[in-house]
Design brief:
The protein has about 25 residues and is mainly alpha-helical. It has 2 helices and no strands.
Amino acid sequence: MKLGFIGLGIMGTPMAINLARAGHQ
């Protein structure tokens, strides 16, 4: 997963955060 986030970079960060929030809730 870490490699994926690094690969996405700044553009993927907001999407990753949204997915994380959705997953927690």
